[in-house]
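Hi support team,

I've been running sequence recovery on a batch of backbones for a student project. Most finish fine, but this one hangs at about 90% for roughly twenty minutes before it completes. I'm not sure whether the input is malformed or the queue is just slow. I've pasted the structure tokens below so you can try to reproduce it. Let me know if you need the job ID as well.

Thanks,
M.K.
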């Protein structure tokens, strides 16, 4: 069997990040991420099949040129990476491939089909199948069934497929118990040197250290994709993957990719010690909750190469944090940022505008709060009422959601939710205002863009600023 793996941005259009829960335009991060989820499925397939991986984010072909590449490879199966904000482009590319090569099977995966299931697949009659939920084991079993003369897909849990004119979605699959059984992403199939950090132009990659989150934040899709129980890779597995990246691909910058990096404090300390004792010289970033850091832990992380920690702030209003079941406090937010500053770990605060309870006063207060926190970087988003989340159910029942395509469900895009007394346009305006007031402060520009950013990277930084300013008002 021959399998073509596709991250379907093509031509001169938008570039998207499609990695588990993270689905947004690449411009909102000022950089592109390597598609390690797609690379992991390619690593599974290459055990029995010939494979090709095409990342349209960094291989800027037209649709016609892409179809020619697919035709030249001659696949039996094309696997398409998807996300909510990119779904129209994703499916437009998939439709073009199916029209040009009717015999090829099309399989889609990602949070979009996990949350929408049968309804999602029914919208795209040219798709043959989709993966619902955690993809690796379902994909491996699907490949095995396809190799049979008369494939029986009815017993492949976690699979949606077309049976005649009907779409069938099988029962959900149990989550992977042993994460170490999942192979490393096939990074040799990626053009690794094209994924670079905007501040230092160095190649980076993502490494998954754990999956799942026990917290019940109403806006989050993680529980539907990776479950609410923490599952961890072994320390040995993580170190071996780092070593492969360093020795085979020359990568020394990493984002440890999981929901709450410091959730298991003991594991985090052991990983830091293992990095130090391995002799591997790396720099890395991670993301966690503000109530799960302390000075000793941060010092160990700093010694092991951590230079940036993302913190889930969401809002400066305690009632909003309570209503979204965040379970943190404004005091803990301030303390976490100060601890990171004292230890010398830079911070990126993540803020969401338009959560239940948001008003003009709370939005303005949150902007003032983040300006005074001492953060090094900030990401601001508009709340998205994703299906199967508590926020999505509340917004739908309350009639808050504006009608529109699923592609408007973009965590990095404009708001689609009219909160009581706060229309979607205002939510978007406050999100944009937060970006501008944070990054365009003269003192911040002088400190970060002159002192910390290399001259040749000023173009990327200016592109990021242009994105913040383009078409924004207020």
């Amino acid at each position: 069997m021959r399998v073509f793996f596709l991250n379907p941005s093509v031509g001169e259009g938008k570039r998207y990040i499609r990695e588990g829960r993270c689905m947004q335009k690449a411009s909102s991060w000022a950089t592109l991420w390597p598609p390690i989820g797609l690379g992991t499925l390619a690593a599974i397939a290459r055990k029995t099949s010939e494979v090709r991986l095409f990342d349209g984010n960094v291989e800027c072909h037209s649709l016609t040129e892409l179809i020619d590449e697919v035709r030249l490879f001659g696949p039996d199966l094309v696997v398409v990476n998807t996300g909510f904000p990119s779904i129209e482009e994703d499916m437009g590319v998939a439709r073009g491939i199916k029209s040009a090569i009717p015999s090829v099977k099309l399989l889609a995966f990602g949070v979009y089909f996990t949350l929408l299931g049968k309804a999602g697949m029914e919208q795209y009659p040219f798709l043959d199948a989709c993966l619902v939920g955690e993809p690796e084991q379902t994909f491996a079993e699907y490949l095995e069934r396809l190799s049979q003369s008369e494939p029986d897909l009815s017993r492949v849990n976690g699979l949606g497929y077309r049976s005649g004119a009907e779409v069938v979605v099988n029962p959900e699959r149990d989550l992977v118990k042993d994460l170490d059984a999942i192979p490393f992403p096939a990074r040799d199939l990626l053009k690794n040197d094209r994924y670079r950090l905007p501040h230092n132009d160095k190649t980076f990659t993502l490494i998954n250290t754990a999956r799942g989150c026990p917290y019940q934040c109403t806006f989050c899709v993680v529980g539907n994709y990776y479950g609410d129980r923490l599952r961890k890779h072994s320390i040995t597995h993580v170190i071996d993957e780092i070593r492969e990246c360093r020795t085979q691909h020359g990568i020394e910058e990493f984002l440890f990719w999981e929901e709450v990096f410091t959730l298991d404090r003991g594991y985090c300390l052991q990983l830091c010690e293992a990095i130090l004792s391995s002799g591997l010289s790396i720099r890395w970033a991670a993301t966690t909750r503000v109530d799960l850091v302390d000075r000793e832990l941060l010092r160990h992380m700093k010694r092991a190469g951590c230079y940036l920690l993302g913190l889930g702030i969401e809002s400066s209003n305690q009632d909003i944090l309570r209503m979204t079941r965040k379970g943190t406090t404004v005091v803990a937010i301030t303390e976490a940022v100060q601890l990171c500053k004292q230890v010398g770990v830079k911070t990126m605060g993540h803020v969401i505008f338009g959560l239940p309870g948001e008003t003009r006063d709370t939005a303005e207060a949150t902007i003032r709060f983040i300006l005074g926190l001492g953060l090094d970087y900030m990401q601001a988003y508009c709340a998205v009422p994703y299906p199967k989340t508590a926020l999505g159910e509340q917004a739908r029942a309350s009639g808050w959601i504006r009608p529109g395509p699923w592609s408007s469900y973009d965590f990095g895009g404009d708001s689609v939710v009219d909160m009581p007394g706060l229309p979607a346009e205002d939510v978007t305006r406050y999100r944009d205002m937060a970006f501008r007031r944070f990054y365009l402060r003269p003192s911040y520009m002088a400190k970060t863009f002159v002192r910390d950013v290399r001259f040749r990277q000023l173009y990327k930084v200016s592109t990021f600023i242009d994105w913040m300013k383009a078409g924004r008002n207020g």
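--
Follow-up from support: It reproduced on our side and the slowdown came from queue contention, not your input. The chain has two domains: 2-169, 196-469. No action needed from you.
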